[in-house]
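Thread: quick sanity check before group meeting

JM: Hey all, I'm pulling together slides for Thursday and realized we never actually wrote out the predicted structure for the chain we discussed last week. Dropping the sequence here so it's in one place. If anyone has concerns about the input, flag it before I start.
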Amino acid sequence: MARAADETPRCFRHPTEPGRRKCYHCKKPICPQCQQRIEGHIFCSEHCAAAERRRGHWRKLQAWNRTALAGIWFRVALFSALLVLGAATIWLAAHADLFIAVPEQAAATFKKPREKGLDYEKLNWDAPGAVVIESPAQGSVLRDNRVSVSGKAPAEAMVGLYVNGDKVDVQMCRGGSWRFDAVPLTGSRNLIQARYFDNRGNSSYSPALLVELQALPAKMIPLPVETAAAPAADLANLIRGPADRREVFLTFDGGSTANVTAQILDILKKEDVRATIFLTGEYMQRYPELTRRIAEEGHVVGNHTFSHPHLTTYSFNARQNTLAGVTQDFLKGQLQRAADLFKIITGRSMSPYWRAPFGEFNGQILGWAKAAGYRHVYWTPHMDTLDWVASPSDPLFRTPAQILQGLLGRDKADPHGLDGGIVLMHLGSERESGMEADRILPGLIEGLRQKGYTFGTVNEAGAK
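JM (edit): ok, ran it. Output follows.
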C-alpha cells in the first residue's frame, strides 16, 4: 500500500503517462505532451490560461478596491461624477433636437371616417380646405409656450383642436370663424391640426401646421377618460312607453335626405300605422310636399332642431358636456325656427316633443328644451335600427334581415319584451340599393302584430 501511494501521478488525459507537473489553474497532473507554457506558467489548455487571466484581473481589482476605493475623497469624487453624468444624459435626451438635425415633416395625414353621401343643395362640407388654420402661420418660430389658434370652418360646425395628436379643446364655429386661446405647445416642434364635424355626421381634418418653440414646452393636461352615462328616463326624457302595455312606438328622424320617405309613408298608410316623425327645418325647406303629406296622414311630427347641429362634445371626446357656443338662446332659436317653418308649410302646430341631433344631450340641455315647452324623446336601448350605418365594412352595419331579426328577438331578450319600446329609424338612407332598412317595415309590422303588439305615437305614451 505504501508503494502505491509513492507512485508518480498520472496525466488526467493520458493515464499511461506520468504527470509530474500540474496545471497552474486547475491543479490537475499533466504529462509533457499536455503542457502549455503561457505567460510564464504551465497550463493544461488555453481555456485554463484564460480563466487564470480573469482570476488575476479580479484579484487586482479586489486589491485596488481595498486600497484606492477605501479613501473617502475618491468615493465622493466617483459618486459626484456619476450624478453629473446622469444629469447630462437626461438633459441631452430632452434637448436632442438642438444638436440633431430633424428633417422637415410633411403635413400629417389622417384616415377619414366613413364617407356619407353629400347633399349638393348645401355647402360641400368635404371640399378640401373646409376647415383651415389661419393663425399662427406655417413654420412660425415662437417664444411663448401658449398660443392662440384661429381659423375658418362652415358655420355651426363643431371644431376640435389637436396638438401633437393630443385633444386640446372643442367649440362650435359660430359665423364661420373659430378661435382657441392659451393652446399649450408641448414640444420644441409642434403639429397643430383642426377637425370639424358637420351636421350630418361627417368629419374632416385641416392640413397640419408645423410650429417651432424656442422655450420650455408647456404641459398638456390630459382629458379625463370617461364615457357618457346611459340616458335616464325622467319627465324631460322619454326612453320607453308604458311597460305594461303591448304597444310599440315607431319613430323616424328626417335630417337632410328623403330618398326613402315616400316608401315609408306608403307602407305606414297601407298598414294603417301612425308613427312619430322628427323633422329638421332643413328637411322641411327641401321637401315641403313630403312635410305636408306627413302631417296630413296623421303622423305626430316632433322637432329635430332647424339645422341638426352638435349640442355636446360627445363626437370629439365621448363626453356629454355642453358644447362651447351652445346656449339656451341658441337651442331655443333652433327649436323655434323649425316649429315656425312647420306652421308655415302645414298650417299646423308642431307637437311639443323633440329629439336631439345625434342623440347628444345632457341635463342642462333637457332643461333648456323643457323651458321652451318641449319634452325629449330618446329611443329604447337596443331598438336603434342603425339604419344610418351605410358601409358594409363598418362593424355596426346590419343587413335588413339582421335588423328585423334583432328587433323581433327583443321580445325574449328584454325583461319587458318590446312593451313600450321606441324604435328609431330614418327617412333618408345612404345605403346601397337593396340594403335600405325601410324594407323591413312590412315584416316588422306583421311580426309584431303576430306577437300581439299594437302601434302608438309618443303623445299617447306615459313616462316609464
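AS: nice. Residues 339 and 350 are 6 Å apart (CA to CA). DSSP finds eleven helices and 21 strands in the chain.
JM: adding both to the slides.
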